Amino acid sequence: MKAAVLTRDSLEISVQDVKKPKPSKGEVIIKVKNFAINRVDLILRDSWLNSSKSSPHVLGTDFSGVIHELGIGVSSIKIDDRVLVNPGISCMECLSCRKGEQSLCNDFQILGYGVWGGAAEYVKVPAHNVLKIPDNLSFELAAAAPLTTLTVYRMLVSKARLSPGELVLVLGAGGGIGTIAIQMVKVMGGRVIALTSTEKVQQVKELGADFVLDYKHDLDWDKKILEFSQGVDITIDPVGESTWEKSLQILAKGGRHVVIGVTTGTLGSTHIRNLYSKQAYIMGSYMSNNREFVEAMQFIFTGQIKPVLDSIQSMERLGDGIEKMARNRHIGKLVFTVG
C-alpha cells in the first residue's frame, strides 16, 4: 500500500510502498479517505534523527475512512461503515485504564507518533477506538476533528470545569486547538478572548470570539485584558513559554490555567505569591479518555462545532503541509486526501 513515511535515510517525508497491515483479534482495518496532521506530526519530524522508532514510520494522527476488514471478535461495527478514530491507544488492562482514564496509561501512545498512523491507504486500529460518523459528515471534516476536539473537551469540561458566563483566554487561537476551543466555549455559554497573529484576526473573529487581540501589535495584551475585566477564569494554553508569565498574572481569583502544549518553549517563570493569593490552579492536560472522546465527538456530529479547514491537499503534499505548520502559516487543520 502507499503511505507517507519517515525513513532513516532521509529527513524528508515521502510516499512509499509499505506492507499492508493485517488485523489481530479485536482490531479492524480502515481504508483511509482523508487524514489530518497535528503538532505531534511536526514534533516527530523534527526529532526523527534521535528517534528510536522503526523505519519506515507512517505518520498521520487523525483520519477517517471506511471499515475494510474485521479482526476476530469484532461485532460492534461492520464492513463499509463510515468511521473516524480516537488517536489515543492504551492497554485497556492497567489500573488507569480500568478506572476509565486511558490517557494516564503507562503504555499510552498516539497513532502516527508511537505507532503507525493513518497517512496511508490502510491503517490498523483497535475496534474500541473506532466511532461511526453520520452520513451528512464529510470525510474531510471527520478527519480534522478527533485529536483537537477531544483535547479541548478534556481541558474545558474535565479539567477547568467551565461554567456559563466565564471568561476564557484562548492562546494560539488560530491553530487547531484554538479554533475548536473558541467554538466549544461559545457553545457552552462562555465568553472568549482570543490571542492570535495579525493575518488570522478576521477569521478568529468570525468563529465567535468576543474579544480578539493581535499579539504582534498588542504587545501589552495582558494589560489590555485587565482594562475590561477582573482577569480571566480559564486559560487554554497550547503555547507555553512566550505567554506563560503574562497569562498566569491575569488569572482571576480561582482561575484555572490549563496547558496542553509548548510550541514556543518549555520554560516559564511563575510568581508563586500571585498563584496562592488568587487560589488559582495550573493544570496539565493530555488527550482524553475514551468516554470524553465519545462525548466530544457529539459536538461535531450535531454540527455545533465545525473544524476549520486550512486546506485539502493530496497525500504527496504532506511534507509541504508540515512545513506550513512549522511556520505557523495555517489556520485550523491541514487535511490530505488518500488516493
CATH class of the largest domain reads Alpha Beta
Secondary-structure arrangement, i.e. CATH architecture of the largest domain: Alpha-Beta Complex
What is the H level of CATH, i.e. the homologous superfamily of the largest domain? Medium-chain alcohol dehydrogenases, catalytic domain
Note the overall shape. Answer: globular
Could you list the spans in which at least 5 consecutive residues all have pLDDT below 50? Answer: none
Question: What's the mean pLDDT score?
Answer: 96
Profile the largest sheet: 7 strands, mixed
Radius of gyration, in Å, reads 20 Å
Residues in β-strands, percent: 25-35%
Total E-strand runs: 18
The secondary structure category is alpha/beta
**In percent, how helical is the residue content?**
25-40%
| Helix count, DSSP H or I runs of 4 or more residues | 11
Describe it.
It is a single chain. The protein has 339 residues and is α/β, with parallel strands linked by helices. It folds into two domains: 2-145 and 307-337, Medium-chain alcohol dehydrogenases, catalytic domain (Quinone Oxidoreductase, Chain A, domain 1), CATH 3.90.180.10; 149-284, NAD(P)-binding Rossmann-like Domain (Rossmann fold, 3-Layer(aba) Sandwich), CATH 3.40.50. The chain contains eleven helices and 18 strands. The chain has helices spanning 39-46, 95-98, 139-144, 146-159, 176-187, 201-206, 221-227, 241-249, 272-277, 290-301, 318-326; strands spanning 2-7, 10-17, 27-36, 57-58, 62-70, 82-85, 88-89, 109-110, 122-126, 130-132, 167-170, 191-196, 211-214, 232-237, 251-259, 281-284, 309-314, 333-337. The strands form four sheets. Strands 3, 5, 6, 9, 10, 17 and 18 form a seven-stranded mixed β-sheet that branches. Strand 17, helix 11 (318-326) and strand 18 form a beta-alpha-beta unit. The protein starts with a strand and ends with a strand. The relative contact order is 0.16.
